Amino acid sequence: MNSPELKQFIRKNASLFWYIPDDKKEEVSHELIVETILNYGDKDAVIELFQLIGIKKAAELFFNSINLSDRRKGNYHEITVNYFTLVFSKYAL
User: Cα 76 to chain center, whole Å?
Assistant: First the structure.
């Protein structure tokens, strides 16, 4: 279950979750939130995400997702994988 702060964050960035029905947006998984924000969010959205769930938790979800399978890794843009692998390796591990 998402916290009220995380639900507010999702509402604030609702346009990034355009493919999810409005009544289901606040129920999305943390994995999907991290994936969407890292791929499509701006700098401020990424920083706010890290403040809400923590950079270590975001890194854990990111690495679990990209290491799960090539298909899941394909959900991230190649440049996103490269950039956040470097960021998380320096600041979260």
Answer: 10
pLDDT in tens, 16-69: 999 999 999 999 999 999 999 999 999 999 999 999 999 999 999 999 999 988
Closest C-alpha among 50, 84, 48 to residue 66? 84
Which run of H or E residues covers position 15?
none
CA of residue 27 relative to chain centroid, distance: 14
> Got the DSSP string for 39-82?
HH--HHHHHHHHHHH-HHHHHHHHHHHHHH-HHHHTTS-HHHHH
Indicate left, alpha or beta for 54 from its phi (over 0: left) and psi (-120 to 50: alpha).
Answer: left
The Cα–Cα gap between 46 and 40 comes to 9
